[in-house]
Amino acid sequence: MRLMSSRRSLRCAGIVPAPTERKARFPVSLAQRVAVGAVALALITACRADAPTAPRELAAPSPNFTLVGATGTEIFPTVPPGDFQPVGVAIGLNASGQVTGSAVLSSLQNDFKAFRWSSGTSASLITGCCTTMWGNDINDAGVIAGTANVNIVTGNRGFVASGSSPTLLSILPGADPEQNAGAVALNNAGQVVGASPTPGFARHAVLWSAMGVIQDLGTLGGSNSEAIDINASGQVIGSSQTTGNAATHFFLWSSGSGMQDLNTTVNAAITNVVEINDAGQIIGTFTTGGQSHAFLYTPGSGLKDLGTLGGTTSAPTGLNNKGDVVGSSTIADPATHAFLWTAANGMEDITAASGVPEVQRLNDNLQTLTGTLPPSILPRTGTLRPQLVQLQITNGQGPVATFTFTCKDQGNAHQCAFDASGSTSGSKIVSYRWEWGDGRSETKTHPTVRNTWHSAGIFLVTLRVTDEHGQIAVFRFHVPVP
Predict the structure, then answer these.
(1) Rounded to two decimals, what is the model's pTM?
(2) Closest-CA residue to 362 (of 323, 419, 335)
């Protein structure tokens, strides 16, 4: 399922890469560690519904906001110099800003492990199995799908984890257990997609039900295929070799229609697909005028070229349910910058607005990740410091701060009641910070507050209101306190 509110999966699994892609691997010593046996997937308690829903209507598009910046929150804590610094990569993101990936968090940990992270809490590792593990996707219930090396006897295996321990996913019956499999995406119904070896030593795109039953999705006539993403209605995108293994094409699979060739039905020039959202929109790359551009495909409307930031190439890395897209594009330099594309404003430069160099994934709250690597069924290494990034936007109607007050002489209390409900904004106000003019301050999420001074006098009271897009307005007034 990738991240979004009701679906999201991941990106290229790396088994049958597109011609322009290369697979990134852990060192060989780690890549040789592999899983033992296959275990049926237990029922995911937070995602019990197994039947896919009907495709959803496109979520309300983002209004005509302008990108003004971004703020980042580090996934791993910073420790004192000389101590072990946690390292890893962030790969999956869900609707509430939970993140998964792979990390080494302490000097006692001798391998990368999958983790689950939420804002305000530390990253917690998925343990109890396996040597190396990496989380590729996380759904809205916090369930993780990923890939694990268990030992040196069998191949990699996909897993799911609704808590701190993983449940391994089976491979296709009759397949060689020494061959690799992996999970790259899941939706909120608990359906998981990835790839599995077949009895003929090929690899096929597969779908696991919430009960762990594996289904071979087949190919476009060739030997190999892989799944890339799944949405809330169980639609799957991926890549497959065509008849005679003459080419790699990209597909859309559904339970009712089977595997359809997107290079035949949508555009012959498609060179990659990345995500599918709950409305069935798909992002990817295609060749136009000899250049590689990001596209957004919408059922019934066709493929839209998203253009560039002034350079010759662009590529998408995230799609939300509103049809907003993030990715990377060359500029006139030709350096590469991160972009946000919306139907209202087209392509805007994230790097120029915020300094953030690259982003992956996007949810409906315009949260994304930086310090990432694309999802894969192969392990990833890195010494990265990933961040959850909140894109900041404005609609030109920033907040206006104001307050009224009433004071009463309460003996020695010297108390006043303040009401900032007259403050306005084009979007939701999320905090009210009060500075009382005597060195004290406090922050509230509601507009009313009382304050008591130790003595009478005239105090300069300052109100700072902040809206959900990070915009701040300030109002000051000399308050006579009896």
Answers:
(1) 0.74
(2) 323
